[in-house]
Amino acid sequence: xxxxxxxxxxxxxxxxxxxxxxxxxxxxxxxxxxxxxxxxxxxxxxxxxxxxxxxxxxxxxxxxxxxxxxxxxxxxxxxxxxxxxxxxxxxxxxxxxxxxxxxxxxxxxxxxxxxxxxxxxxxxxxxxxxxxxxxxxxxxxxxxxxxxxxxxxxxxxxxxxxxxxxxxxxxxxxx
Length: 175
Prior knowledge:
There is one protein chain. The protein has five helices and eight strands. The chain has a single domain, classed as Nucleoside Triphosphate Pyrophosphohydrolase, CATH 3.90.79. The radius of gyration is 15 Å and the shape is globular. The model has no long low-confidence stretch (mean pLDDT about 95). It is α/β, with parallel strands linked by helices. Strands 1-6-7-2-5 form a five-stranded mixed β-sheet, with helices on both faces. Strands 4-3-8 form a three-stranded antiparallel β-sheet. The protein has helices spanning about 10-15, 65-75, 120-125, 135-145, 150-170; strands at about 5, 25-35, 40-45, 50, 55, 75-90, 95-110, 125-130. Strand 6 and strand 7 form a beta hairpin.
């Protein structure tokens, strides 16, 4: 799997980039599309921000299985991974925390089940909103511009980068 991007405090604060050697957390996340290339965006009403589906990889869990589990829990859809996008490293020097995220592109299957959100996700008012690729890019850009929270900015830069990778791949490609 290839490196997509290393995000550092330089991207968030404009300070010199510093890299953390030890991985604090493994994540698995990416873009979920339907058969007409609408994107599942996770809207957090309490923060007025959008993110992509995904989350942590459990001990002993395969990163692909983790992404498919996160999709089902957060969106209610079963899915299949159609492409590996690469990985992103988030070097949060202020927190001495490095997250390594495996990134994928997946297609939703027709069947919908109930979501299984965590308590924190419910408190954030997280819901799935389907939108076009252009709309998804626009809401991500707006979230990046309006967010002032240090850790959330890393999440937004990461997810915007993943979405841009998927859009580049999907340009002119049928799913």
